[in-house]
Amino acid sequence: MKDEQVETIAAMLKTMSHPLRLKILCLLQNREMTVGEIREEVKTTNANVSQHLSMLRNHGIISCRKEANFIYNRIDDPRVLDLMGQMRRLFCETDE
Fold first, then answer.
1. In principle, which of 32, 45, 47, 51 could form an S-S bond with 74, CB 3.0–4.6 Å?
2. How confident is the model at residue 95 (pLDDT cuts 50, 70, 90)?
3. How far is 17 from 15, CA to CA, in rounded Å?
4. Domain coordinates in residue numbering, the chain
5. Rg, the chain, Cα only
6. Cα 5 to chain centroid, rounded
7. pLDDT for residue 43 is more than 80
8. What crossing angle do the helices spanning 19-28 and 78-91 adopt, rounded to 10°?
9. CA proximity to 79, closest of 29, 41, 18
């Protein structure tokens, strides 16, 4: 890997590694969600969710679209979807 690639990957992983942002990404794996829907799931304020979504957007991990008065957030990078799926298989699934 080139140094530039290592820096890019490290920055992306650092952004994703915050517990609340990781939880948000888990939620966004399967569908688009509004700030309000995410807030209900993660049990924090709209402002806190918006701040974390902004960080994820600024690093190109998620994107959003506006429909009427709602902004829907989704994972924009297919590599992130693959990574989230791998992490789920490695760390969350059991043999039960």
1. 32
2. low
3. 6
4. 3-91
5. 14
6. 20
7. yes
8. 100
9. 29
Domain 3-91 class?
Answer: mainly alpha
Report d(CA 45, CA 66) in Å as an integer: 20
**45 in Cβ contact with 39 (< 8 Å):** yes
Task: Give 76-95 as a 3 state SS string.
Answer: CCHHHHHHHHHHHHHHCCCC
- Is residue 73 within 8 Å of 38, Cβ to Cβ? yes
CB contact set of 96 (below 8 Å; sequence gap of 6+): none
* Contact of 64 with 34, CB cutoff 8 Å: no
Q: What percent of the chain has pLDDT over 70?
A: 97
